[in-house]
Amino acid sequence: MQLANFTLLRLLSPISIRCTPAAVINRTLHSSPALLGKKYAKYYFTPKKIFRKEEIYRVPKTQLILPHERLDPLNIPEPSAPTATESGLLEQLASAVNHEQSTSGRPFAIVHLVGKQYKVSEGDLVQLVGKSLLAELGDELVLEKVLALGFTDFTLYGRPILSRDCVTVRATVVEKTLEPPKIRFEFRKRQNFRRMNIHQTNATVLRIGSIEFNKPAVQQAL
Amino acid sequence: MHLTCPLWVRRIPKIYRNNDPFYLRNLYLQFSFLFRGRSSRCFRLAEQRVIKAFQHMNAMRAVRKDRFKQLCDERIDAACAQHGIPGKMLIDGLGRMNIQLNRKMLQQLAIYEPYSFKSLTDLVKQYHSELGIVPPNAEPPAPVVTRGLLQSPIVPGNRKYYE
Prior knowledge:
Largest sheet of chain A: 4 strands, antiparallel
Number of helices of chain B: 7
CATH class of the largest domain in chain B: Mainly Alpha
Distance between the termini of chain A: 57 Å
Number of strands of chain B: 0
Helix content of chain B: 55-70%
Radius of gyration of chain B: 30 Å
Oligomer: heterodimer
Structural class of chain A: alpha+beta
């Protein structure tokens, strides 16, 4: 059995049945001051006041580098000299990089953003689920964690990230809203236990502008 | 039939007074809108079906992630088989080289960017051939310029693979 999606849109305010956390009561109070009773406010569907919860994305500690894992900057290995066949291939790659024209094809980039990866090209819309950025509407961002770049004749893969000099991926914040409401319903049989929570998380939408790559920086890396 | 005012109007709940049962029942009936037969119209049947539907929804939440992961693995495996590599070898090899692309991204590349995917498989074949592992039924890889850097640790997290 499938639930009709549009019925959820009608349930605008967060409702809890037989379980009213304080936040729900506060919201109903704001919307309709007549409903002051905790017991009866849950049965009303009041028009929603769209408010955005303040959330800041924090990098969890498990993703940070431990002290015994830090790089020794003095011991980074240098590349050995290329052989004859390898130098020929490198020349091919350099010529492909030189002759790359963004008008011919549509370049793509794989970007790491808010814990997830997105395959992105010009004019795409990206929705960040569950998080609200500190950026305002209309702000232009540069997405720096680029894992891979692709063009018509060659692709660049970062280990794990490409350097900032090589790439710039620009995006603008287009929309900051709430997602459609989601329902969490807990039921235990024969125990008179039912809990329903309707919650909406924040969502920001970015429009990707342009993907530019710096030819001299890439050729220097080769 | 003309109903008098108190009967026609639903009791509006006030503090410390009885409320109308309409509101709770309407909540369940809103969820049962497109159900079959009287389960969409009668509250006593709708309540049961709606509760079961919610339980299905909750149960799928944990399962959905596993199913998506299975899908991605299947697609990657199918794309790698065209190049003579098992799918797990690709994911393991990329992890050891510290190319941290998702399963989701790898399947997108396999579907929409076949040449980029081929270059990834060539990298993995080169990595394993340097260690002496040759996957069976595999064509020899396209020449890969490594300059001795493929086996070296670029980022600290992979140091355990090189010790």
